[in-house]
Design goal:
Serine Threonine Protein Phosphatase 5, Tetratricopeptide repeat; 13 helices; single chain; elongated
Length: 259
């Protein structure tokens, strides 16, 4: 009996110990991992959890560059157009300028250069259209009035040419090209006094303009002011010694003065 009793006590103790171990193992391997996983899921601050949709990704550096390039697309097209313009490929320049205007519909410079390119192609109707479009976008753009004046002058619409050159000069009084061009319009109208006045103004603004002095000499020539004509031709030859027509006119003017 004693033996059986001891055996029962022994196996009961063993069973109790094993039961305790099972409980500990269950707590460690089942309950604890759940808590750890839960903690890992919430390592980010609440404001950042699920802050991006599942399929979203931060913008790559190339995408940022592409966006910046897209913002400057009108400038790139304008520069390409200018390259073609300087190569006298006006049709290709026009194509680029139109792309620039499409990329940025209020880009006045694109319309201005379209006017200049069509002017070079002697398509004066289109040139006038684009110069006027430029002025609609920027009413204070002297180059647009200057271009419009040149176009009207080539179409022999001299009054409109004068009107636009004057507007260009009001907006930019130091624009020697507009003053010179205005002098040429008056010269074409045979108003040599006004022509001389504006040619003189042009060379005052830009004293290095040999063509301006030559045209000034011609205006004085037609006014039979031989002294002023000779002086203008001399100045022209100082800047451009190879201008033979200026030398011939100077000799004639000096002959008139001698007589």
């Amino acid at each position: 009996m004693e033996k059986n009793e001891k055996s029962k006590i022994f196996w009961g103790a063993i069973a109790a110990t094993l039961s305790g171990l099972v409980i500990l193992l269950i707590e460690h391997y089942i309950i604890s991992p759940d808590r750890t996983i839960t903690a890992e899921k919430n390592t980010e601050p609440p404001s950042q959890v699920n802050s991006h949709p599942q399929n979203a990704r931060p913008p790559k550096q190339e995408e940022t560059k592409r966006d910046t390039k897209s913002d400057n697309l009108h400038i790139e097209y304008l520069q390409q157009g200018n390259t073609y313009f300087n190569l006298n490929d006006y049709n290709e320049a026009i194509r680029c300028y139109k792309l620039a205007a499409t990329a940025k519909p209020d880009f006045a410079e694109a319309f201005l250069n379209l006017g200049a390119a069509y002017h070079r192609l002697k398509n004066y109707d289109e040139a006038i259209y684009y110069y006027k479009r430029t002025i609609e976008l920027r009413p204070d753009y002297p180059e647009a009035y200057n271009g419009l004046g040149k176009t009207y002058n080539n179409r022999r619409d001299l009054d409109k040419a004068i009107e636009n050159f004057k507007k260009a000069i009001v907006l930019n009084p130091e624009n020697d090209q507009a003053s010179h061009a205005l002098g040429s319009v008056y010269f074409n109208k045979k108003d040599y006094t006004q022509a001389a006045y504006h040619y003189k103004r042009a060379v005052e603004i830009n004293p290095q303009n040999a063509a301006g002095y030559y045209d000034l000499g011609d205006a004085y020539w037609n006014l039979e002011n031989w002294s002023a004509a000779a002086q203008a031709y001399r100045q022209c030859l100082k800047l451009d010694p190879n201008r033979t027509e200026a030398r011939e006119r100077l000799q004639k003017a000096e002959e008139f003065l001698a007589n």
